[in-house]
Amino acid sequence: MAIPRIIASITQYISEAVMRIFAPNDDAYPNIGVQPFTGEPYKKGSAESW
Fold first, then answer.
1. Cβ partners under 8 Å of residue 9, min gap 6
2. Helix, strand or coil for residue 21?
3. Dihedral of the CA atoms 20, 25, 28, 29 (nearest 10)?
4. What is the DSSP string of 13-29?
5. What does the pLDDT look like over 1-50, one tens digit per residue?
6. How far apart are the C-alpha atoms of 21 and 46, rounded to whole Å?
7. What is the pLDDT of residue 31?
8. d(Cα 6, Cα 13) in Å, to the nearest integer?
9. Structure letter (DSSP) for residue 40
10. What is the pTM of this model?
């Protein structure tokens, strides 16, 4: 019968989605830490000259 096969595929689809959502992160971002500020600090009078 086709009904048990459809139910099995729906169950597999949902369980794979749940496992992907709750699995540990697999991101490969580098651990770079805090970046130093290299810009210039805000000066109150400089924004008014635009």
1. none
2. helix
3. 130
4. HHHHHHHHHHSPP----
5. 799 999 999 999 999 999 999 988 777 777 777 777 777 777 666 556 55
6. 48
7. 77
8. 11
9. P
10. 0.48
